[in-house]
Design brief:
Blueprint lengths: L10 E2 L3 E5 L8 E4 L6 E2 L3 E6 L2 E10 L14 E2 L7 H14 L3 H8 L11 E7 L1 H5 L10 H12 L3 E2 H8 L3 H9 L3 E7 L18 H19 L7 E7 L5 H14 L3 E5 L5 H13 L4 E3 L5 H12 L5 E4 L11 E7 L16 H12 L2 E6 L4 H8 L4 E5 L10 E6 L13 H12 L3 E5 L8 E4 L16 E3 L4 E3 L6 E2 L14 E4 L3 H11 L5 E4 L7 H12 L5 E4 L12 E6 L13 H13 L10 E6 L5 H8 L2 H14 L6 E10 L2 H13 L7 E14 L2 E11 L4 H10 L8 E6 L6
Parallel strand pairs: 11-16, 11-17, 12-14, 12-15, 13-14, 15-16, 18-28, 19-26, 19-27, 25-26, 27-28
Antiparallel strand pairs: 1-4, 2-3, 2-6, 5-6, 5-7, 8-9, 8-10, 20-24, 21-22, 22-23, 29-31, 29-32, 30-31
The structure holds adenosine-5'-diphosphate and zinc ion (ZN).
Length: about 750
């Protein structure tokens, strides 16, 4: 099948069209196509808006709402391939589903304004003619500095002035004067990504029978979609396998088949440390790096990547959730790895779930999507049970490694010393592993030294000035900081409330404090911390992983950032310091999420020949989450959890939408929240909880109230929300944020 953009697109000439702009306007605006221009659906164009010149996308027929005489002309067509039909439909679909203006969603697809400009060129230098021919010419003074510049150029490609000066260790004026004297010749440089094409025919590992079976099914889905003339190329497959079973290896086969068919591939990964190891694996398999899409890209990388994608040159892109809205003209497969991960949900701006919208994009584009996980989300689990999604399972770890043995330590009966966070049973297990020359991972999902600091004298607690949250002490960085807004302050010498010096007390452990205890108890062991704030860069993270792999680290202490992806053959013991931590909030997904996280952490133990062991420190060993982990009964746990949700009409059996009202003025926020409460929809099967102050009642200086709409699955949540909000006037800087399918209840 040809890529969707080559199917005939209607052409507009000398008539009105609607153009969608990447702005939160109510809809697309009409423009006139001037006689000397012809445009088609999806074309990127520049148009006037007020006094400005903006860039947008030809979206459809004109609406005829604006009088012909007031209509303005399109300024011009941009030299960029058009936006594909599946993406245009996805933009409209997402806008409608999340109750956002389509332009706000389009903005996510056009997130790199500079990519719409003609590619930038820069001036680089090569050795000039006179440098080569006139070496002996006495009119040109050849200084030592100048020689160094020429020596640098002799070795490589043309360089821009600043870079040339830096490499040669000379000042910019030396380069300039050399150019003036003809010793350097200017040339125009096009910026380019160095991009190798993945080779899908490279030798692959020999797959085990169950891996081969799963891979064949995925390849068949890809081939079917390539051959599909109509709309049966779409399918959703859950690749369900324990950690280390080879899910990545298996979906690489589907990627290879997609590349062989000349189509593009998108792989979505959770935003965390995973990417490095994944890139390495991909490069080994396909002999080239894929393009990356995440928040750390530089402006130039972002621009070049966007253009490589829209032009179809980029064949594989791996990225965080925002990569879903990139302008692939020819997408043929999406993989959502760790599909259960909550980082796919965005809960600011346009609130969308990239996993769910990825399924929508695959349906609109008529191609397969693979969801991969060892701990599928309840939503996906239910979709598999009902037959909407297919499931392929990989029951064993590759190479015969067994799954770790998981046991709970009942903290209610352990004899704990004060200011100690490691139970004697866990200490003993650590000592045992160290003695055997093996590695240990201690998991505590809390950054910093202590989650709360108070004054021993007056009881004052350190709170963020902008948020309803305690300040977390970070001893390594010597500050108290807010994990919600980033506020940070050095720890004061005396209590700001009572003025007594040196009375500050840390309450509870974070990873830094745990490291202190570990250092005291196991002074011989080399211990490191792995948390997002202790690793300042991707290279630091990489180095840490390498040290762990080389067994230079005996005990690794970390937060959820170390839960995923890593393969440490000598890691045999995982200790979970506070297994109950995630259950405390008690929101809809607390149990599910805790199970997923602890299962994933557990999966780090015993990935090779040596069997692994996991100890969970818990005050509630009888909790279904702990029991499911200990007995390895994931499906029973999910089934029970699903029944519970169904009984209460909770997602995925019912629908939720949250309304978050926020603003600088408390009274105004409360007034609008209450007025929304009074005018709430009265309908069978619909209930509204609230209004009430949000648990996080102040965030970044803004007061927050919440309402939660709960509706039956078959109700039209969008229509209900629309008419509800239409009746309420919102003023000042108050904002009402709608979060359909919320994950965050704070
Ligand atoms: P998962 O994604 O399910 O956690 P991976 O695909 O990361 O599993 O595989 C775990 C480890 O086993 C990796 O180091 C991978 O290279 C290796 N592996 C998996 N399948 C095979 C295979 N068929 N041949 C060789 N190595 C394999
Ligand atoms: Zn704060």
């Amino acid at each position: 099948m040809p890529p969707s953009h080559t199917t005939p697109r209607p052409t507009y000439r000398d008539e009105r069209v609607s153009v969608l702009l990447p702005l939160p306007l109510a809809g697309a605006y009409d423009y006139l196509v001037p006689p000397d221009l012809s445009v088609s659906l999806g074309d990127f164009v520049s148009v006037p808006l007020g006094k400005r010149d903006l860039k947008g996308v030809v979206w459809g027929n004109g609406s005829n709402e604006v009088d012909d005489k007031k209509l303005k002309n399109i300024n011009g067509l941009l030299d960029i391939p058009p936006m594909s039909e599946d993406l245009r439909k996805l933009v409209d679909w997402t806008a409608s589903y999340t109750l956002n203006p389509p332009g706000a969603v389009l903005r996510m697809s056009m997130s790199v304004p500079s990519a719409l400009e003609p590619p930038k060129t820069r001036i680089g230098y090569l050795p000039g003619v006179s440098a080569v021919e006139d070496e002996g010419d006495s009119r040109i003074r050849m200084t030592e500095a100048r020689r160094r510049v020429l020596a640098v150029l002799a070795e490589g490609p043309p360089r821009v002035a600043a870079e040339l000066a830096r490499s040669a260790g000379v000042s910019a004026s030396v380069v300039r004067s050399m150019a003036d004297a003809g010793l350097l010749k200017p040339v125009t440089l096009q910026q380019q990504l160095d991009m190798d094409l993945p080779d899908w025919e490279r030798p692959r590992p020999i797959l085990s029978p169950s891996q081969a079976e799963a891979a064949a099914a995925l390849v068949a889905a890809v081939e079917k979609s390539v051959a599909a003339a109509d709309d049966n190329g779409f399918s959703v497959v859950l690749l369900d396998g324990v950690t280390g079973s080879g899910k990545t290896e298996v979906y690489f086969e589907a990627i290879a088949a997609t590349l062989a068919a000349g189509r593009q591939v998108l792989v979505l990964l959770p935003e965390i440390a995973l990417t490095t190891q994944w890139l390495k694996r991909f490069t080994e398999r396909f002999g080239a790096r894929p393009l990356e899409w995440h928040s750390d890209l530089t402006g130039a990388e972002r621009r070049l990547t966007w253009r490589a994608i829209v032009s179809g040159e980029a064949s594989v892109v791996v990225g965080a959730r925002s990569a879903l809205f990139l302008p692939f003209p020819n997408l043929g497969l999406t993989v959502v790895d760790e599909e259960h991960d909550s980082s796919f949900k965005q809960d600011e701006g346009v609130c969308y779930n990239a996993r769910d919208m990825a399924v929508v994009r695959a349906r609109l584009g008529n191609f397969p999507i693979i969801l991969s996980s060892a701990t599928p989300s309840l939503e996906t689990f239910v979709n598999v049970q009902s037959g909407r999604y297919k499931s392929l399972s990989l029951p064993e770890r590759h190479g015969g490694a067994s799954l770790p043995e998981i046991a709970a330590i009942d903290m209610r009966i352990e004899p704990m010393e004060s200011q100690s966070w490691l139970a004697p049973a866990l200490q003993e297990a650590v000592a045992h592993s160290l003695a055997a020359g093996e590695q240990v991972m201690l998991f505590l999902n809390r950054r910093g030294y202590a989650p709360l600091t108070l004054c021993r004298h007056c009881g004052h607690r350190f709170q963020c000035p902008n948020c309803t949250s305690w300040l977390v002490e970070h001893r390594l960085q010597r500050n108290l900081s807010c994990h919600h807004c980033g506020f940070s302050t050095p720890p004061p010498e005396e209590c700001p409330a009572c003025g007594t010096p040196e009375t500050l007390a840390a309450c509870g452990p974070g990873v830094e404090r745990l490291a202190e205890e570990v250092a005291e108890r196991f002074p011989q062991a080399h211990c490191e911390i792995m948390a997002s704030d202790t690793m300042q860069s991707p290279t630091a993270a990489e180095a840490l992983v390498r040290h762990m792999q080389n067994r230079e680290i005996d005990i690794l202490i970390g937060t959820q950032i170390m839960a995923k992806g890593h393969h440490f053959p000598y890691l045999t013991l995982v200790g979970v310091v506070d297994a109950d931590l995630g259950l405390a909030g008690g929101d809809l997904r607390a149990a599910e999420r805790t199970f997923q996280l602890l299962h994933q952490v557990s999966g780090r133990a015993g990935r090779a020949e040596r069997p692994g062991r996991v100890l969970l420190q818990t005050y509630r060993p009888e909790d279904p989450v702990m029991e499911a982990l200990v007995t390895g009964t994931r499906d029973e746990f999910l089934t029970a959890e699903a029944e519970e949700r169904e009984r209460h009409g909770m997602p995925p059996f019912g629908r939720l939408a949250a309304l978050i009202i926020s603003g600088n003025d408390y009274d105004e926020v409360e007034r609008i929240a209450r007025s929304l409460g009074r005018s709430c929809p009265v309908e069978e099967g619909v209930t509204v909880l609230g209004p009430a102050p949000a648990p996080l009642s102040i965030l970044r200086g803004r007061h927050r109230w919440r309402l939660l709409l709960k509706a039956r699955r078959d109700s039209n949540v969008r229509a209900i929300l629309r008419s509800w909000l239409a009746g309420v006037r919102i003023r000042g800087n108050v904002r009402v944020q709608i979060d359909v399918d919320p994950y965050n209840f704070l």
